[in-house]
Amino acid sequence: MRILKVSEQRGIIYVVDDDEQIRKGASVLLETLDADLVAFDSAESFLEAYDGRRPACLVTDLCMLGMSGTELQEHLHSLGIKMSVVVITAHASTASTVRAMKNGAFTLLEKPCDPNALWTAARNGLEIDKDTYEQELSCMSVRERLDSLTNKEQAVLECIVVGDANKVIARKMDVSIRTVENHRSRVFSKMKADSVAELVRMSLMVEQEGS
């Protein structure tokens, strides 16, 4: 399946709340955004339907029957699923706010929510997730290129990004300078890089993503 660029995809907003009036009100309000919108009456029903679509923004109530909004956040995190999250609640406390924010909530709004505040939060959350998702796709592409390198090409790449000259690399690997030049040429070709600076940037991107 071809992975679409962010610019080719339409964002989606998920509204999860066990209060039907809240779901309807939020859905009507957020339908004015340039995004698809789907509402669920529980975290469990959302998880059952969620197919990994991104970019996305999740608007979820904090206190619900069954799995709570923070438990939903933590479950998504445990699955490695990232998306912007806007938490809404009628029972805000310092502890719940801190927990929601530590779990990665973009913001927390108290019920009854100001319509403009909710609309702005969902819009900003979706824009942030577009940027995040773009970075994730870029990192995925770089990882695929790294995986295409042979062990020797990877060794040469590691030397290049720390600034080693060809003769230094040849000495470290106990090969000829010509061999290093050949490996170096293939590294640049496979990584689709035009400069050492670009190779360093890609290496740092993958390193930071994995940390």
Automatic annotation (TrEMBL):
Kindly indicate where the leader peptide sits in this chain: none
Q: Which CDD domains match?
A: LuxR_C_like
Does the keyword section mention ATP-binding?
no
- Record has Mitochondrion as a keyword: no
Q: What is the superkingdom listed in this entry's lineage?
A: Bacteria
One MF annotation (Gene Ontology) recorded for this entry: DNA binding
Q: From its record, what is one biological process in GO terms?
A: regulation of DNA-templated transcription
Q: For this UniProt record, give its keywords in alphabetical order, as a comma-separated list.
A: DNA-binding, Phosphoprotein, Transcription, Transcription regulation
Pfam families in the record, alphabetically?
GerE, Response_reg
Instruction: Name positions with the PTM 4-aspartylphosphate.
Output: 61
Q: Which PANTHER family match?
A: DNA-BINDING TRANSCRIPTIONAL ACTIVATOR DEVR_DOSR
Q: What is this protein called?
A: Transcriptional regulatory protein FixJ
This chain is encoded by the gene named fixJ
